[in-house]
Amino acid sequence: MQLAEVFTRIVGNDPPVGFRAYDGSAIPAGPDAPVLDVRDQTALNYLASARRFELGLARAYITGAVDVAGDLYELMKKLWMLEVQLPKLELVKLWSALGGLKLLKRPPIPAREAHLSGRSHSKSRDADAISHHYDVGNDFYELFLGDSMAYTCAVYESHDTTLEQAQWAKHDLVARKLDLKPGMRLLDVGCGWGGMVRHAAKHYGVKALGVTLSKEQAEWAQKAIVDQGLQDLAEVKFLDYRDVPDDEYDVISSIGLTEHIGRENLASYFSSLYSKLKVGGRLLNHCITKPDSKGPAIARGGFIERYIFPDGALSGPGPLMTHMHDAGFEVQHAENLREHYALTLAAWEANLERNWDDAVKLVGLETARTWRLYLVGCRLGFEHNGIQLHQMLGVKLGDQLLPAMPLRPTWTS
């Protein structure tokens, strides 16, 4: 049986994309339609030997055994919309026709795949997980993040807003939700390349400390602080947020850290942040969320967990709010920025494509293809409400129930 026939048996006789394979079989593409190209027998071995289909397909794409002629986003979007319901008996027949047990021979695993050791979410293992993702190279991240070097969801005023404008707006929205004032002390946990720290110091006169478990991020951020003349107000340290002293900060921002700490650690995470705040202080927690509270925190053994965010975990907004309340925070405001993250990822993806040759020179073809697949897949996830992004604003009232918040939000204008 030729592979083109297998493809139509799976997706239907009128597929929305073209197809071609190393065995010479093909399905013509419509005008401007992308083409899925199975270039090598090892593609089938990756698919058959992986415990999860999407992991096998990812491995095949990363190594080049599967490629796409045309736009990867358009191909994945078209295939995403298909409802494939193939009976198990039919799958067994296809398996036998393509080689049966011979398909289980697993080709070499791409070097980018993470293999962590030690106790889950211990400080040393968390440091390794963060390093796996973020220490790919600052020069590589600059190619697709742009001048802001912000690796979290931006906030778009309109579809015409540029990425840099949207990232500035995100930082400023956080600043206004925290009601930053000159002289305040801000702690930004999981600070990345220090975008929030620099914004708060430059535009609000806040004394800001950022902490990150990525040594490369900390070095880049500290240099940027000095280059911008902000060293009297801003600082970024290579430090675990759990090692920051308590009772010292007026406000805390956490922008993209919660996904890394593990669902079983949410209670201790929010309690730790609560202990670092002064009474009356605010916490702005910004993180990717699940659209519900069902099922696992993340697909264990899947592409994202193996290649992008090892040990990462997502929670629904409900459990996050509950943990904030249980830690002592009064949650005053919550906002879903799902559509904004889809736009952010589209901008990052466009930057990566524009700088593709430079990206390959910096990190190699397999790593560049890994990030392309990740950006496109996540963009589709946000577009189709498979994942969301929530900002939650909490306040530490203390025993006196201080009037720490205005009667109406001041950050919406």
Q: Can you walk me through this structure?
A:
There is one protein chain. This protein has two domains: 3-104, Nonspecific Lipid-transfer Protein, Chain A; 123-396, Rossmann fold, CATH 3.40.50.150. It has 16 helices and eleven strands. It has helices spanning 3-11, 42-49, 53-63, 72-80, 88-98, 123-134, 138-145, 163-177, 195-204, 215-227, 266-276, 303-308, 317-327, 338-354, 356-363, 365-383, and strands at 18-21, 26-27, 35-38, 66-69, 185-189, 207-212, 234-238, 249-255, 277-289, 329-336, 388-396. The strands form two sheets. A seven-stranded mixed beta sheet has the order 7-6-5-8-9-11-10, with helices on both faces. A four-stranded mixed beta sheet has the order 2-1-3-4. The longest helix has 19 residues, at 365-383. The chain starts with a helix and ends in a 17-residue tail after the last strand. GO terms for molecular function: methyltransferase activity. InterPro entries: CFA/CMAS, CMAS, SAM-dependent_MTases_sf. Keywords: Lipid metabolism, Methyltransferase, S-adenosyl-L-methionine, Transferase.
